[in-house]
TrEMBL record:
Protein name in UniProt: Putative dehydrogenase
PANTHER family reported for this sequence: BCDNA.GH03377
InterPro entries: Gfo/Idh/MocA-like_OxRdtase_N (IPR000683), Gfo/Idh/MocA_oxidrdct_glycsds (IPR050463), GFO_IDH_MocA-like_dom (IPR055170), NAD(P)-bd_dom_sf (IPR036291)
Organism: Anaerosolibacter carboniphilus
Keywords: Oxidoreductase
Pfam families tied to this protein: GFO_IDH_MocA, GFO_IDH_MocA_C3
GO molecular function: nucleotide binding; oxidoreductase activity
Domain Gfo/Idh/MocA-like oxidoreductase N-terminal: from-to ranges: 5-121
Superkingdom of origin: Bacteria
Domain GFO/IDH/MocA-like oxidoreductase stretches: 132-277
């Protein structure tokens, strides 16, 4: 019989609700409490969570919890994670881990000292096809990897009336598009290929120096439009777009395009891996299919099916072939492994840990430095 765990969720925006839904699908995690600055009791009642708090400290001090999920703006992650870990509570944090490398380093050290489970929600690792790609690379099916490219593009900030806390560096950190979605791509590439990025050359663009913020609350990803007089002008100090050249530790070259202003693409991740024996292409808009390219044989399309995937990848596949597994399923599989590692600290951890979160903070900082100095920067 599986051990039962008690969880609390800090921050009930779009992503906090997604965490609650995924946790309930596990069957052995009870969401006992949530924290939200506005209407916490009403939100708890709406989500059928027993306790709602306005202050995460009160939640942690009042409710007996095994794990907290941090789903708040980036600039709050450090203090919340520190408060929880100092009280012996495991932590799962949304990305990016913090707003500075120094904060991330402190959290890594504290997690080690307290011997607590620590995780960052880079859930793209847990799609069946991306997991299968990792197994292919581990078994050297590509031969020598020559090139890696792709990108992460969205359109939810296309208009100057689109606004979110992520746009402001005091809340998001030095980078916005790179830290928010680019770090997903960078983590996924290093995870899948086993290669490390060793040098970067980046160019940033901010297309709107000033945006119009609604004087009324607007949810993330919503398309709500209001009369022009219902906005206030806010200067923007983070990038809308990034183009990044990459060098890897095996000599491979690569590049990625990161944009939150590409009309018509809601949330598209693309990956192209070129090797001496074969290539692979994966696109989140065709999430169940992997295109394997060969020089001297017909190309192959591998469709997600636990009977066709690598045995290790079949273990994180929840449904038979022909049944698409997407964003909520990747959350479920990520959380399943994280909670299992509380019970068995010796198990192999494929999820992103605080060390991985720190790695992404370092990459983001070096990419920012490159964009500011217009030169190659070593990691």
């Amino acid at each position: 019989m599986m051990k039962k765990f008690k969880a609390g969720v800090v921050g009930i925006g779009f992503i906090g609700v997604a965490h609650i839904e995924a946790l309930r699908r596990l069957g052995n995690v009870e969401v006992l409490a949530l924290t939200n600055e506005t209407d916490p009791v009403q939100k708890a009642a709406h989500l059928n969570v027993p306790h709602g708090f306005a202050d995460y400290r009160e939640m942690i001090d009042t409710v007996d919890l095994d794990m907290i999920h941090i789903c708040t703006p980036n600039h709050t992650h450090y203090e919340i994670a520190t408060y929880a870990m100092e009280r012996g509570i495991h932590v799962l944090c949304e990305k990016p881990m913090t707003t500075t490398v120094e904060e991330a380093e402190k959290l890594v050290q504290l997690a080690k000292e307290k011997q607590l489970v620590h995780a960052i929600n880079y859930h793209n690792r847990f799609y069946p096809i991306t997991h299968h790609l990792r197994q292919m690379a581990k078994e050297a099916e590509f031969g020598e990897i020559f090139s890696i490219h792709g990108g992460y593009i969205q359109d939810w900030l296309l208009f100057d009336t689109d606004f979110n806390w992520r746009l402001i560096s005091s809340k998001s950190g030095k980078t916005r598009a790179v830290a928010d979605i680019g770090s997903h791509w960078l983590d996924l590439i290093e995870y899948m290929t086993g290669l490390k990025i060793v040098e970067v050359f980046a160019a940033f663009r901010t297309f709107y120096d000033t945006r119009k913020r609604s004087i009324h609350p607007v949810e993330t990803f919503s398309q709500a439009q209001q009369p022009r007089e219902a906005y206030e002008d806010i200067p923007i100090d983070t990038e809308d777009f990034a183009s990044i050249l990459l060098k890897f530790d095996n000599g491979a070259l690569g590049n990625t395009t990161i944009s939150q202003m590409f009309a018509g693409e809601k949330n598209r991740i693309s990956v192209f891996i070129g090797g001496s024996k074969m290539s692979a292409q994966w696109d989140s808009n065709d999430i169940s299919n992997l295109v394997i390219g060969r020089r001297d044989e017909p190309n192959l399309v591998l469709t997600k099916d636990p009977g066709l995937l690598h045995p290790q990848s079949a273990k994180i596949t929840g449904y038979p072939g022909g049944h698409v597994e997407g964003f909520p399923d990747a959350f479920k599989q990520t959380f399943k492994q994280i909670y299992a590692s509380i019970e068995d600290p010796t198990m192999e951890k494929e999820y992103a840990t605080f060390e991985d979160g720190l790695r992404q903070m370092i990459l983001c900082e070096r990419i920012y430095e490159s964009a500011q100095t217009n030169r190659w920067v070593k990691i």
